[in-house]
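To fix ideas, we close by showing one paired sequence and structure record:
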Amino acid sequence: MSERLRLFPLGTVLFPGMVLPLHIFEDRYRQMVHELLDGPEPRRFGVIAIRKGRETGIEGVSSLYEVGCTATLRQTEEHDDGRFDLITVGTQRFRLTVLDESRPYLQGDVEFLPEDDGNSAAAGRAASLVAAAFGDYLEALAARSLAQITIPDLPGEPVLLSYLVAATMIVDLPDQQALLAEPDSLSRLAAERALLQRETTMLRTLTARPAPDLRYAPYSPN
């Protein structure tokens, strides 16, 4: 079954289970937040990455990716001038089937994508391999003083691990988007292992530094 969702295009990818702070200042998104707060729980909207265009102004978004993730409101702070600071959490992946531009903000008909339970023996083995490769990748980042990422306890559950690794890797948006769109955790973990091996090799052998990662700024500029 399809569902109509309010959409929030971003220049980043949201994964299930990941926290996304947002600073809302555009009138159209203020309207969206008011409508969400006036409606029933769960108060959620769709975050979908921009393929071509920019975040501010609908006219700036010329193309969206097909697969996104719902963001559920967890905390809301409204300022005196009408701006909002939000804390949201990614909850469920969806595929955009119809885009509606009839309102100040974008809406879309979406089909929610199923999640496997990640309990197969193959997924468990893949998770162990990815956890080891992820550790090597973090060591390579730290060795070059490019980032210091501390994750004390990696989840052993394959689905959660696959999303955590996907959200943490410093890779281009199309790579992250491809991970979000993988059909199941086993496929996602296999793709992540290949990416981790590629990125770790590059970090250890190349002299040029990658561009700074801006995905962890406190707020999205929307």
